[in-house]
Amino acid sequence: SLNPKITVGNAIMEPLQVHKVFKNDQERKAHVLHLLEKVNLNPEHFDRYPHEFSGGQRQRIVIARALALKPKFIICDESVSALDVSVQAQVLNLLRELQQEFGLTYIFISHDLAVVKHISDRMIVMNKGKVEEEGFPEIIYNSPKAEYTKRLIAAIPGKNSL
After folding, report:
1. Rounded (5°) CA angle 119-61-46
2. Adjacent-strand bridge partners of 135
C-alpha cells in the first residue's frame, strides 16, 4: 500500500534511498521517472499524492515501486482483486510485458482462477495450506481433478465465455 502522506515519487524512491542505490537523489529521481513511464504513468505524476489516482493507477505505482530495486522475483498477492475487469486486464497485460522485458518471475496469489489462468505458466491450487492440484493452468482449468478446484472453477461467473 501507499503512504497517503508522501508523494508517489518519494514512495517509489524510498527503497532506493534505504538501500543506497545510485549516488544521489537526482539520479534516483531520474530512475523513478523512468519507472513511471514503464508502468504507463506520466512522469509529471511524481509530485502527486496517492488519493489523486484511480485504483488501477495506484496499482501501477506499487508495481513501479516493486521494480525500483530491479528484483528478479515478485510476489503478487491478490494484486488485481479490487479492480474492475477492464482495469484488471490492463494491469495483467502490464505485468506480462514487464515480466518479458525484465526477466521477472512472479508468484501470483489469487482466489480468481480465471486471472491465474491468464497470467500463469504453472498453477498450484491450495486449500487450507495443502496442495490440492498442480500443473498447467489450461489443463487444470479445463479438466480439474480435485473437488475443491472444481468448486472454485464452478464459482467463476461466465466461465464458459473465457
Report:
1. 155
2. 123
Per the CATH hierarchy, to which homologous superfamily does domain 8-120 belong? P-loop containing nucleotide triphosphate hydrolases (3.40.50.300)
**pLDDT digits over 106-125, tens only?**
999 988 888 888 889 999 99
pLDDT digits (tens, 9 = 90+) for 71-83: 999 999 998 888 8
Q: Do residues 2 and 11 lie in contact, with contact meaning Cβ atoms separated by under 8 Å?
A: yes
Contacts of 9 (CB under 8 A, 6+ apart): 29, 32, 33, 36, 45, 46, 47
Domain ranges of the chain: 8-120
Between CA 1 and CA 11 the distance in angstroms is 10
Amino acid identity of residue 62, one-letter, is V
pTM attached to this predicted model: 0.87
The amino acid present at 67, given as its one-letter code, is: L
